[in-house]
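Lab notebook page, bench 4
Experiment: in silico fold of construct C2
Operator: M.H.
Input chain length: 255 residues
Purpose: comparison with the prior construct
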Amino acid sequence: MNEKAGHTFLARLGKRRLRPGGVVGTNFLLQEFKNSSDKAILEVGCNMGTTAIELVKKYHIKNYVACDLDAKALKKAMLNAKTNKVGDFITFKEENALHLSFLDESFDIVINEAMLTMLSDPHKEKALKEYYRVLKPGGILLTHDVMLRTDDTAIQKEVIGNLSRAINIHAKPHTKEEWNNLFNSVGFHIKGTKLGPMSLLNPLGMIKDEGLINTLRMIKNARKPENKKQFDLMFQTFKKYQNELGFIATISIKK
C-alpha cells in the first residue's frame, strides 16, 4: 500500500486530534472564543471538524465557516457535525488557504492548526497574508504548529529531512523566533504563545488527547500489516527527535 500523508494516515487509524501539541495546544487557543457566540469565525484546515464541532457546541457560535482543501475530509467533517447536531451552525467549504474566496475584513477570528508547517516559506507568508486580509481590524489569528527546539542548523536539516520522510509531506517547521518574525513581517502583533513537547504520538500525550480506549484502538490498527511500517517510522522519528521538536501555539492580533 502506498504511504499516505501523516495526518491522513493517522486519521485512518482513528486519531481524532491531529495537532502537534494535542489538546494542550488547542485549549490555549480556545480561550479566545469566550463571549464569541456572535463573532464570525473562519477555520482553515478543519480536517474532520473536531475543533469546529467542539467550539460551536461549547460557545454556541452561530457563524462558523470551516474550510479544507481535502474534499474527503470535508465530507467526514459534515457527517461528524450532523451527528453532533451542530450541522446547521457550521458552513463547510472547499478552499485553498493561499487563495481564499472570502471578502476583505470578513471575520473576527481565524484559526489554523497544523498546516503552516507543511507549506514552503513563501507559501507560509502567502497564507498569512490571506488570513490578515480576511480578518477585521483588531481581529485575532490563532495558529498551532510544529516548532524546532534547536538552533543548530545541521541538526535542523537532519530533523526536517527525517520528519518529512516520516510524514510523507515536505515539512518546514521554524524556531520560535522564526515563527514570531514571520507573523510580525505580515503585520500581526503577537499577544501570546504557548510552547511544549509534541504529543501527537507520545503515548501519554495520545491518552490525554484521545482517551485510553481510543488510543488502544489506534495501536491495534497500527499493528495491522498494511499500517505497521508507516506507523513505526513515524513513531520512531518523533521519539528520536522528542528534544528537537515541539509545538508552538500563537495568538496574534491584526494591527
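Observations: The longest strand covers residues 135-148. The beta strands are 40-44, 63-68, 90-94, 107-113, 135-148, 188-197, 245-254.
Next step: discuss at group meeting.
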